[in-house]
Amino acid sequence: MLTAIALTPRDQIAGHFGKAAIFAIYDQQGLLVDRIENSGSRELGCKHKKILQRQLTALNVNEIVLGNIGTRSLARLLQAGFSVSRVPPRTSLAAFLAGGISKEALVTADQGRACKREKGACGCGCSTKKTVPVVAKVGMFVTSFNQLGKIGGLKL
Cα 12–73–87 angle (5° rounding)? Predict the structure, then answer.
């Protein structure tokens, strides 16, 4: 049985699953097996969480320990068969490995933290920016250059 621990760069339990810098993989004896870097880049959007889930599955991780997690991500992990446990955020890794920290088992999605953002365009909650139409107001001059073709021989 392998356990993935969501960590900050300072080796503390990360406060959020998707924003953890590193996932340290430990075996039952407490030996470090592997480390996964979280890309978490803005170019990937919400896909980095799914990539993390695939990497953890490929390593045969059974349990994930973290500080907090959103309801959607928690539901996805529970459905994939992971055991998810919560400990106080910013707990040091050494204190957790020593066994002095109690874990709270998360068994239903509603135990996760409610999403603070509205659903994005992709519908997964990543808060992808939506295009907002520009509304002209009285006294405001709006120019749209994308609808112009050529002006006096100049190509825009």
Answer: 30
User: Exposure of 97 by Cβ count < 10 A (0-12 exposed, 13-18 middle, 19+ buried)?
Assistant: middle
- Class of residue 153 by CB neighbours under 10 A (exposed 0-12, middle 13-18, buried 19+): exposed
Block residue for tokens 């994939």: 80
Cα 41-87-48 angle, rounded to 5 deg: 15
How many contiguous H segments (helices) and E segments (strands) does the chain have? Answer: 3, 8
Three-state DSSP class for residue 72? helix
CA 103 to CA 84: how far, in whole Å?
Answer: 9
pLDDT digits (tens, 9 = 90+) for 83-115: 999 999 899 999 999 988 899 999 999 998 887
153: left (phi over 0), alpha (psi -120 to 50) or beta: left
Q: Tell me phi and psi for residue 77, to 5 degrees.
A: -70, -40
Backbone angles phi, psi at 117, to 5 degrees: -110, 160
